[in-house]
Structures are given as structure tokens and as C-alpha cells.
Automatic annotation (TrEMBL):
It comes from Kutzneria chonburiensis. Pfam families: KH_NucS_shadow. This is SCO5389 family protein. NCBIfam families: SCO5389_fam.
Amino acid sequence: MSLDVSDALLARATSGDVTDDEFVACVRDSLPYAWQVISGVAADLSGDFAEHATPPPSEAERGQLLRALASDAIRGGLERHFGVTLAFQNCHRVAAFRPSAVDSDRYRTFVSPRGQLLNQSPELRDC
């Protein structure tokens, strides 16, 4: 399971909507490594761009990051919470952009097929 959902939160979700704050708290508590990486790039955003490019220390942490960024709901909740647009390459390279920078050359380069290809290396083949 991707998230550790409390019985109380599950009951609220079953009977209706939950707030972004409740959802993001569940993500924070369930995926602490992913939270650390994403909150870090959001905090480092001094211009229009910040990135984290350090491979996770274990497969468990890598899995957290993949779950956080592969889920539309989780990724969207994190983007709304931190006020950023996230971009992701490989299994660990996470970038945060100001939403106003999504039309920038740097963003387009980061998310381009060329950018993905240039970010490959043999040691990341099975990440």
C-alpha cells in the first residue's frame, strides 16, 4: 500500500471529500523520504528552479519517491501544498519550478526527451 491511511481518514473519505491538508498530512506521514526530498526542493527554490539529484539510500526510499511522483493525486497535492510544479527524471532527480516558470526554456529542457536521454547513465539503468 502506498499510504498509511488511518481509520478516521478512511471513514471521512468513504462518506465524502477530505481536505488537502488532511491528504497532505497522510502523504507526509506515509512517505517521509519523499516528503523530505520534495519539501527540500520547494524550500531551496530561490529563483525559478531547484533540484534534488542524489540517489535514495535504499530501495524503500526510492519506492516512496516513485509512489509520490507517479500518483496524480499525491503529486498534485504536494504541488498545491508547496506552490510549485514538480518535474521528475529517472528514479531520483526531482525538480521544483515556480508555476510561472513552466513555460521557461529550463523547464522545457528538463522535461524534454533530450533532457531525459542526457540524464541517463549505466548505474541508473535499473533504478
